Amino acid sequence: MPATDYQGSSASLRHSILSLRRDPVHSMDSQQSTSVLELELEAFQKQVTERFLELSSAGPDRLLSLAWIQKLLDSFLCCQEEFRVILFNHKSLVHRPPLDRFVQDYFERTVKGLDVCNAIRDGIEQIREWKKLLEIVLCALHNQRMFGEGQFRRAKKALIDLSISMLDEKDSNASSALAHRNRSFGRQQASSRDQHHRNLGHFRSLSWSVSRSWSAARQLQAIGNNLVAPRGNEVVATNGIAVAVYTMNTILLLVMWALVAAIPCQDRGLQVHFSIPRQFPWAQPVVLLHERILEESRKRDRRNAPGLLRELYQMDKCARVMGDLMDWVQFPLTEEKEGEVRQRVNELANVCEVLKEGLDPLERQVREVFHRIVHSRTEGLDSLGRPNHV
């Protein structure tokens, strides 16, 4: 975003706050406090703008990758901490209406994000289950001096199980296409599918942190419900803090929405409307980010994906290419065919390595977001400084 856009928005916010100083009933201490608050609010808006400008300008090979999601969560945590400090430093203002209501509303929205964090951690565990199937393929074929038919059968079975598991259950056409592609397996393939569904149900019953009726789409709608920018009189009445609250509400919604878009979870849905007034300095990168993720979800080869995470796409693509290759393999292998198989196996190994390095740090960050939200309740900020008995 051009610097003039940020400066113009900051000037508007500064004008609203400075108008309070013209009131003769304000003391010198109050004016000094307002001056400090004004600097804090400007710094907060600048941080949000810069961080999401960087996120929204990521190249197509970086957007929605594990590394990008980690940077997204890091940005949220940093913005959340700076916002918390503003509220802590100006408790006397936070206690007054209408700001007390705005702050309380924000913390109620963050609590709704706890279920999203739990569902995302479940989704990360699901990706680990898929990674184990890739590891079976690698165990059978990676770094082998010679390939045998038994190794290929073992690898192909794992690839079929992976494809079935990643398949969107609502897409019956895709399911039929997969069954047709693997028709040569006959009853064995049907048995594999049945066994997979039993295993998946067992995994969910033991590990999922949200109920079967829980919906990520409905939870996102609840977080974004009645999210509107503060009016001018509300900005003035809160010394500008209402703008910071609205900013954090919007960032919370965007981050939770992006997580649901990227990671497999129950009843994924991306129909969340972002209506952000253009005068906010961070509006352009946030809107651009929303549009880019939506555009990614509409691509033909991503519509039925369990998640938009880039590494999931690479996993599915490599597995499909490898499966198609195996359909045409005949023994003994020609030198050319063996070289192609080794190339595809190396691609699978690269995907596995990226997942191995990225899933644990991502889960730790999701857990940190969860605990940061909980901590904000235990320290009493959501009850505006009063003891928290929840």
Automatic annotation (TrEMBL):
Transmembrane segments: 241-263
Origin superkingdom: Eukaryota
Listed GO CC annotations: membrane
Coiled coil: none
The entry's keywords: Membrane, Transmembrane, Transmembrane helix
Keyword DNA-binding: no
Subcellular locations according to the entry: Membrane
Membrane topology term: Single-pass membrane protein
Assigned protein family: Belongs to the ROH1 family.
Protein name: R3H domain-containing protein
Organismal lineage: Eukaryota, Viridiplantae, Streptophyta, Embryophyta, Tracheophyta
